[in-house]
Specification:
Layout (H helix, E strand, L loop, with lengths): L4 E4 L5 H14 L3 E5 L5 H12 L4 E5 L4 H9 L4 E3 L5 H9 L3 E3 L1 E2 L2 H9 L5 E3 L2 H13 L8 E4 L7 H6 L4 E4 L10 H21 L1
Helix pairs in contact: 1-2, 1-8
Subunit structure: Homotrimer.
EC number: 4.1.2.21
Enzyme class: lyase
């Protein structure tokens, strides 16, 4: 069973990337991004795609340009996540056949992203928009729009975010921080999945 959770591995070393992806997949998370402001994001993405590209949706975060999207596509990445709404990057990503999840904070950004072809929206920063912000934006979004909360969302408030209509989550430091062992990543990912499943099972 897959969960609507994106594991954000900011700073993951290339040599650890494949084994980190392996334990995250074993925990039940099948979507992974490596932010482009990591030391070697394309190398880490390639390592994960080569090892797990058939089992996972793997790509990059903090993507700010069409050239960066091209670089991800060139190594087999299928996911582009951005902190901002850039219609040119979104349209280019979609033209490449990749999923596009741009960061959006306001109704204007949400609609600009959707008009450019975004797969879904990354509500970012989630802790600034807040649960009330998501509820307000949801009222005017087209039916079926997927919204993932990123920043400030986690096991302590999964239930509140889901009740406010969040479709999924991006989890960074709750799963990985630079220097973590693969065993710790495995434990963190398992804990996130357990917390998410408990909330879903209580619905």
């Amino acid at each position: 069973m897959s969960r609507p959770i994106i594991a954000i591995l900011r700073g993951i070393p290339t040599e650890q990337a494949a084994e980190a992806a392996s334990v995250i997949l074993e925990a039940g998370i099948t979507t992974i991004e490596v932010p482009m402001n990591s030391p070697d994001p394309i190398g880490a993405i390639k390592a994960m795609v080569d090892a797990h590209g058939q089992q996972a949706l793997i790509g990059a975060g903090t993507v700010l340009s069409k050239a960066q999207a091209d670089a991800v596509a060139d190594v087999g990445g299928k996911l582009i996540v951005s902190p901002n709404t850039n219609p040119d990057v979104i349209a280019h990503t979609v033209a490449l056949g990749l999923q596009s999840w741009p960061g959006a904070f306001t109704p204007t950004e949400c609609f600009a992203a959707l008009e450019a072809g975004a797969t879904g929206l990354k509500l970012f920063p989630g802790n600034m928009a807040g649960i009330g912000g998501l509820k307000a934006i949801r009222a005017i979004l087209p039916q079926g729009t997927k919204v993932y909360a990123v920043g400030g969302a986690g096991p302590d408030n999964f239930a509140e975010w889901i009740a406010a209509s969040a479709d999924g989550f991006g989890i960074g430091s709750g799963i990985y921080k630079p220097g973590m062992s693969t065993d710790t990543i495995a434990k963190n990912a398992a804990a996130i999945v357990t917390a998410y499943d408990e909330v879903i099972n209580d619905l």
